[in-house]
Amino acid sequence: MQVKKYRAPDVKQALDKVKQELGPDALILETRKVRAKGLRGLFQPAMIEVTAVLESPPQQPFVVPPLQNDDGTKKELEKLKEMVKSLQAQTVLQSIKNDDNGRGGSSVEEPIRRIRSMLLDTGMQPDSADAIVQELIYEGLDLQRNADFSDDIKKVMKKWIRCGPIEVTEEKKPKVVFLVGTTGIGKTTTIAKLAAKYHLEEGFKVGLVTVDTYRIAAVEQLRTYAEIINIPIEVAYNKEEYVKALRRFADMDLVFVDTAGRSQQNLVQLSELREFVQIRKPDEVHLVVNASLRQESLKTILTAFLPIGVTHLIYSKIDEAANYGMLFDLLRTTGLPLSYITNGQRVPEDLKVPDADFVVDLILEG
Ligand SMILES: Nc1nc2c(ncn2[C@@H]2O[C@H](COP(=O)(O)OP(=O)(O)OP(=O)(O)O)[C@@H](O)[C@H]2O)c(=O)[nH]1
Ligand SMILES: [Mg+2]
């Protein structure tokens, strides 16, 4: 804003001066008669003084030059935003971890600390809990809100949870499904449950093959189930017999292959299993993992079995486990779908076909 005074012998001349200097938009604030100071004023005629103001022209807003609107720039910007969000999330998490005694947290840190400790109570590994917490912060969870956040936690957890039961299709016949895993975790029992479900409940043609021929009892166990369910069974003592068995089952919808369990100490000897898998690639290989397995053992088992070509996970014996956080570790680290959960010895009842809701509820609420 520019304020100026103009003097002239009369109003018109004063206004002309204003116009000349400030232009037609000038505002007149005051017009008054003035005399020069001192003696001069006494002898000279009074002057007209006009006070005028010119509002500064409106400032042009500073316009950010438009970003190149091509896809590449947008993606770059998105990437940058993601990085910032992820960094923010890491910072909050780190400050919580640094403050082990749990006191003195801000209103943002406090709920996060509670969520993290609740997740650790499920038995999951700290890096899994951190991944969930980080994602919650990253998603912009309103932590000032007074809530238990359980819906938000479940939603985030589901990002890592895939479920995938066996699907029988017309195109792929027979679908050959292996069950593998360590000893005594429920492979044979689960095959019996699945065979009953797919044959008795859903009406598919199901055949059983066992390549677990080390113990007579193992063969007899599966044979007994086959008789009860009334489906055919083939016992394969070697690779040739296995191939023949599959040929005999050519018109089946589904063939389950029961394999010998390996003790955890003996996991290096998976070569025989690998040979069966290589001779005719199964459509699916389900690794059965005991829900009570200790975290240290999980790593060993995954390292041994995943190279066989595991496609799905079965979480067994949840009725005997104290908590289920390990299931989240399992799904998160492998990225594999969970096909079934077993929850007891009864055949065929104790088998669950899980969905993501069931899995998060199991992990968080038991
Ligand atoms: N509590 C409980 N027991 C189960 C479950 N599934 C199987 N079992 C029991 O676990 C024991 C071993 O089951 P199997 O099916 O023989 O296990 P496997 O993996 O075939 O064992 P191996 O062939 O010896 O490696 C049996 O007593 C089953 O009844 C389950 O979900 N819960
Ligand atoms: Mg068995």
> What is the overall pLDDT average?
87
Main sheet: strand order = 6-5-7-4-8-9-10-11
* CATH second-level architecture of the largest domain: 3-Layer(aba) Sandwich
- How far apart are the first and last residues' alpha carbons, in Å? 71 Å
The helicity comes to 40-55%
Task: Return the string of H and E elements.
Answer: EHEHEHHHHEHEHEHEHEHEHEEH
Approximate strand percentage? 15-25%
The CATH superfamily of the largest domain is known as P-loop containing nucleotide triphosphate hydrolases
Name a few traits of the molecule.
binds guanosine-5'-triphosphate, 43% helix, binds magnesium ion, alpha/beta, 11 strands, Rossmann fold, 366 residues
In a nutshell, what does this entry contain?
Helices cover 43% and strands 17% of the residues. α3 packs across α4, α5 crosses α6 and α7 runs parallel beside α8.
Give the topology:
Elements (H helix, E strand, L loop, with lengths): L1 E7 L2 H12 L4 E8 L3 H6 L3 E8 L16 H28 L10 H13 L4 H13 L11 H8 L17 E6 L6 H15 L4 E5 L5 H14 L3 E3 L3 H10 L5 E5 L12 H9 L4 E7 L4 H11 L6 E5 L8 H10 L3 E5 L8 E2 L3 H10 L1
Parallel strand pairs: 4-7, 4-8, 5-6, 5-7, 8-9, 9-10
Antiparallel strand pairs: 1-3, 2-3, 10-11
The site of guanosine-5'-triphosphate (GTP) has 19 residues, from helix 7.
Please characterize this protein's 3D structure.
It is a single chain. Helix 8 (216-229) links the parallel strand 5 (206-210) and strand 6. With 366 residues, the protein is of the alpha/beta class. It starts with a strand and ends with a helix. The chain has 13 helices and 11 strands. It folds into 3 domains: 2-54, no CATH class; 72-160, no CATH class; 175-365, Rossmann fold, CATH 3.40.50.300.
